[in-house]
Design brief:
The chain is of the alpha+beta class. It has two domains: 4-10 and 105-196, no CATH class; 33-100. Helices cover 31% and strands 22% of the residues. It is built from five helices and nine strands; from the N terminus they run αβββαββαααββββ. A hairpin with a 3-residue loop joins β1 and β2. α3 crosses α4 (136-146) and α4 (136-146) packs antiparallel against α5. The chain is globular, with a radius of gyration of 16 Å. The structure holds adenosine-5'-diphosphate and magnesium ion.
């Protein structure tokens, strides 16, 4: 297995957390923060089924709300777009999205195995295309979409949908990070946060 931390820093993606506080909002009052990344904060809705995700990255906002966003079993179910609820220090608006609650990949689960295989294949493709600089991730993903991993049809469709989205919206894949791949209660692998904008 590749050294993920080393691979990420090689592509300039060291771990930083969004510094902003949770904005005051009636839907968010008293809700517990259960996740935070470089661009988002996740609060538990408390019903066991849904979370509130505050997103500052336009890439994430497009991914979750665009009419032509990628759908299917490997993408998160979005329940509502509650609009802009503040502004991040980065200058981007904070959008509030209500989406399905997902879980970290369980150790040794088929979803984890599949995710590690995807990450490994993606990283090999990135290294193969490293001469392309910033474009290598897009090309690596395209390569994966075109060359089936011998996994499921739906997973192959998901990779193709993600690759098309990345091309259409001119964003970059962000799957070199096991945190961005999660699972449902039923064990399905979900691309929870697969894109970013440099
Ligand atoms: N739908 C979700 N349900 C539960 N936790 C989530 C969900 N989405 C993300 N998280 C948690 O929040 C963290 C940050 O979310 P992520 O989508 O990676 O945001 P960022 O855009 O900041 O990278 C994740 O590492 C994960 O632990
Ligand atoms: Mg993330």
């Amino acid at each position: 297995m590749i050294d993920l931390a080393a691979a990420r820093s090689q592509v300039g993606r060291a771990s930083i957390l969004l510094p902003d506080p949770v904005p005051a909002h009636p839907l968010l009052d008293g809700k517990q923060e259960i996740g935070r990344g470089e661009y988002s904060i996740v609060l538990d809705k408390g019903d066991g089924e849904r979370v509130y995700k505050i997103v500052s990255s336009p890439a994430d906002y497009f991914l979750y709300t665009a009419d032509d966003r990628p759908c299917g079993e490997h993408f998160p179910v979005i329940h509502a777009d509650h609009g802009i609820v503040g502004r991040a220090q980065s200058g981007y608006p904070l959008h509030l999205i209500e989406m399905e609650k997902l879980y970290p990949l369980a150790d040794g689960s088929p979803a984890e195995e599949l995710a590690l295989r995807l990450i490994d294949t993606y990283w090999s493709a990135c290294q193969q295309w490293s001469r392309l600089g910033m474009d290598m991730g897009r090309i690596a993903l395209y390569d994966m979409a075109m060359n089936p991993l011998a996994a499921s049809d739906n997973l192959q469709k998901a990779l193709k949908a993600l690759s098309d989205f990345v091309e259409d919206y001119q964003v970059l894949p962000d799957i070199l990070n096991a945190n961005n791949l999660m699972m449902r209660k039923d064990g399905t692998l979900v691309f929870s946060d697969p894109v970013f904008i440099a």
